[in-house]
Amino acid sequence: MNQPAAERYRVLDELRLIGAGGTNKVMAGELSRLVRRALSDARLPEPRKEGQGALVYPFEPRVAKVAALYHRTCVRVLWDVMETRAVRLEPLFADLVQAGAACVQRFLWNGARLSVYAHGVQDFAAGERQIVGTVKNALIEAAGQHGMTVTLDPENPDVLFCARLSEGVMRVSVDLAGRPMNQRGYRHERAEAPLREDLAAVMLMLARYDARSELLVDPMAGSGTLAIEAACMASARSLWVPPRKPLLLDMPAFAGVAPDSSEPLFADTQACVIASDIDPEMRAITQRAAERAGVASSLRVITSDLRALDPARIVELSAACAGGRTKGLIISNPPYGERLDDADLDELYRSLGRFCRQLPGWRAAFLVANRSFEACFGGRPRIKKPLSNGPLPAYFYLYDL
Length: 401
Ligand SMILES: C[S@@+](CC[C@H](N)C(=O)[O-])C[C@H]1O[C@@H](n2cnc3c(N)ncnc32)[C@H](O)[C@@H]1O
What we know:
- This protein is α/β, with parallel strands linked by helices.
- Helices cover 31% and strands 21% of the residues.
- It has helices spanning 5-8, 24-38, 61-70, 89-101, 104-107, 128-144, 197-206, 225-234, 280-293, 311-318, 342-357, 373-377; strands at 9-18, 48-49, 54-58, 76-84, 113-119, 151-152, 159-166, 169-175, 215-218, 273-277, 299-303, 328-332, 363-368, 383-386, 395-400.
């Protein structure tokens, strides 16, 4: 391409939230709730939607900080700083040096350590490592033009950059968390088929869980992701479990930017959650993770076959925290068939249907990647929405019971 360099590249200043496919509405809803609470005078404009799992807002440091600290349904919060339509390494380098010279002072400082990763760059005419090296060199060069010495430190960066190729545009962004945000820091032990934390949060948002008025029951809780996320969302806790924290907290661009602490935004709301699983090992795993997340007092964790649960047991288990709450949300991510044969799985889904229908006036929400679920569970879902669980195409179901 012989496009003049000045037409190829642009300096950007936008905030990008990236989540799983199909979550744009949920991500926007969560951000607007958090910003309303944390920043009473901030107005959040309507985001631009890019594909199924990306929202773009004008960059506002306070909103970026709220997102990187509290936003549970996205996996990355990026500050888009420049882009280019360069298709080879030399113009990529030249463009990023020129664009970088115009903006590096916003996000780099003398002595900063940086690292770069690339995403979705298969269609670029160079390998991933070459792209990463070129972006890194361009940033170092651009910083040098302002008299700043910055160094590469992939192990321990102060600033992590992401280079993403999308529709022929290579966009460079600062990854404000510095790691995937589903890695909250409370999960230390692996269970069988754990749900990703951001997807658990998406399910809770789609089901419109209201912790102030509803109990929450996960009858097949595994390692407790839904239960823990529900309890954390109830009081809008920071998603990071200390000592883990987002990189932006130590970046000069965010020094003195509100909010000035990472305290829960709804500290006075305490959830009442029951997490149950047939596998006795899950109880201790869930309990320990809930303690690390700081929400153990909201959870009652038990070992039980879901067929042994009934309304009387739910009342008994929730007695200590229910307050006036008598109805609620059943939410779960049941087995899809990895360890059970089809007949057993169908029977499990039928049992789940029977259990749920003992709780009229409640709602029930599930993420399932098994076609026989709907018929076996029975009834008609109010919402049925495709929502992939990692590589597995799955559906989110919401029932009024
Ligand atoms: C896909 S896993 C749930 C994963 C969980 N969401 C997490 O994040 O760890 C399904 C769980 O259902 C549990 N399970 C299977 N049959 C059950 C039954 N009859 N009663 C209760 N739990 C059951 C399994 O032990 C397993 O932990």
